[in-house]
Design a protein that fits this description.
about 55% strand, about 130 residues, single chain, mainly beta, globular
Length: about 130
Amino acid sequence: QVRLVESGGGLVHPGDSLRLSCAASGGTLRRYAMGWFRQSPGKEREMVAGIGWVSWTDTSSTYVKPSVRDRFTISLDSAKATVYLQMNSLQTEDTAVYFCAFCDDCAGYVDEYTSWGQGTQVTVST
């Protein structure tokens, strides 16, 4: 059973930046994907970004939702099994609960994620 620990949410002003972190532990961690999803009140959960990693080739592939691609960056420290979401130029519509997700031995497609973090609130407000 993989455990995910998130951190980094908070209250910021429009134009500010935040970095979310999520550390995974307990899995085999040889080929996996980690992603960030978000959900705001009245809306469905949506995938914001994902990154897949393969240990034996030490290669990764990333996905970032097109509408935030110029502002958000996902990265992975494979040695720490920790994924980061760097969010720049935050806008009020980025306000949501952000969830870290994990799937083992997978490519990282949206339906493959099986483990979820507790969620961290990001509020962008004037």
